[in-house]
Amino acid sequence: MVGHPRPVECPDSPTGTHEISTARWDDTICIWCFEDPKGPPMPGTPRPLNQSAWMYQHLRAPNDSSGNPRRVYLVLRIDKGDPYIHVHDVVDEGYLGRGALDAAGYPQREMLALPTIDIGAAEYRIWLKRGQEDPK
To answer: Are 74 and 57 a contacting pair, CB within 8 Å?
Structure first.
């Protein structure tokens, strides 16, 4: 049938077949093995870094009393075979904007950008502190 592909075997999936997630940047990749059941990707298609799917979430708090921005990026990842999203790193935006991700070693062009979330100043401080404490 057109539009209803036959399930393809996946060695990493608990069900034994590829499972496709539409919540990811590429809805043709199996959430368990990160393979495309339809065949190899077209040139220029973003691929997971080191067998993980990477994304970032922008958190925006109100500026401080001096007008300095209080914004951070959560660098998130989904590991191969793991259906959960993990916070990998917290990057302070400062005055760099999205360039802060590139400066921290996370090429933004290879990651899914999630929508910006407005947060309070207290939550901003919590995330910033977590980013300074957690080893990568």
So the answer is: yes
**Among all chains, which residue has been given the structure tokens 């950008």?**
113
d(CA 31, CA 79): 9
Strands (E), 41-84: 52-61, 70-79
CA distance 74 to 77: 10
Global pTM reads 0.61
d(CA 110, CA 46): 6
Give the up-direction half-sphere exposure of residue 117: CA atoms within 13 A in the CB hemisphere.
Answer: 13
Give the Cα separation of 22 and 136 in Å (integer).
28
CB 61 within 8 A of CB 123: yes
pLDDT digits (tens, 9 = 90+) for 23-61: 444 455 565 565 555 554 444 444 444 467 788 999 999
